[in-house]
Design a protein that fits this description.
Strand content: 35-45%
Number of domains: 2
Shape: elongated
Radius of gyration: 29 Å
Number of strands: 15
Strand order of the largest sheet: 1-8-13-14
Number of helices: 2
């Protein structure tokens, strides 16, 4: 995570709650069906597609430029959470304004459902490992620039058989999401002990700054992220077949010796016929 800090001065001048974020898109599986061997690692590729009505999604993980990280301040989230170390409580800020940006980053997620993970994410026939470091991961991209209607493919991660080899059968996986996280200083209304805004003499909210607050925007999900099960058609499915049984080396040695004996016998017969 970047430790750079960027001040959004245009938002610091006045109390103006942000407009609703305008990024909208969908996730789909690049290769939704297939057949694999029980010992195979199974990669899951996703395609992010921006809706025609979405704002362009421009992002730079270095944070440089104006606006910082390439994200239009009008598309910042308005709801944030803040951990108060003095009270050891989390404070939720509605209608907050992100006035200084520490970092903006993507986060990928999966749903713990489907037969790959046995609805638990911890004790199924497969375990899932997110791709967080390869060039194919969306988390390692230096720059992303998508216009409405554009798409981008990335490797979400891999299913690996928990015990080295999974039982043969049909397996399904449904849900994944892509979220953008924002960290920085948020300006929001001061709240009393009942959670109500504290007003000044003119009846206006008294504003305070919350350092190291966090907010998020959901960019896209797979179609079956909410509706899972047999009635959902846009799924990731694999038919797993048993791995071939390896032939012992001694058997191959015996077989080659036998073939050599047969060949020798045939040459002997041919010599006698001549």
């Amino acid at each position: 995570m970047s430790k750079l800090r960027f001040v959004v001065s245009t938002l610091a001048l006045a109390w103006l709650p942000n407009a609703q974020a305008a990024y909208s898109g969908s996730l789909s599986f690049v290769q939704p069906t297939g057949t694999v061997v029980a010992t195979d690692n199974i990669p899951v590729w996703l395609k992010l597609s921006l809706d025609a009505a979405s704002d362009p999604l421009v992002y730079s993980n270095t944070g440089g430029g104006t606006p910082p990280f390439g994200i239009n301040p009008a598309n910042y989230p308005t709801n944030f959470s803040y951990y108060d170390s003095n009270t050891s409580q989390s404070i939720y800020i509605n209608n907050g304004v992100l006035i200084a940006v520490n970092s903006i980053s993507f986060s990928t997620s999966i749903g713990c459902n489907g037969t790959f993970l046995a609805d638990t994410c911890s004790s199924g026939p497969y375990e899932f490992n997110f791709d967080t470091s390869s060039p194919d991961s969306i988390l390692t991209q230096q720059n992303i620039a998508l216009n409405p209607g554009d798409s981008f493919e990335y490797l979400l991660g891999n299913f690996t058989a928990t015990n080295g080899a999974a039982p043969a059968g049909n397996y399904e996986f449904y849900a994944s999401g892509l979220t953008m996280y924002f960290y920085g200083t948020v300006r929001g209304p001061k709240l009393d002990e009942n959670g109500a805004p504290v007003l000044d003499g003119n009846g206006d909210p008294i504003l305070v700054d919350f350092v190291n607050a966090e907010g998020s925007l959901e960019i896209a999900t797979t179609a079956c992220a909410v509706q899972t099960g047999p009635t959902c058609s846009d799924i990731f499915a694999r038919t797993v077949v048993a791995a071939p049984v390896p032939v012992p080396a001694a058997f191959w040695l015996f077989g080659s010796t036998l073939l050599g004996f047969v060949g020798y016998s045939r040459r002997g017969v041919a010599a006698r016929l001549v």
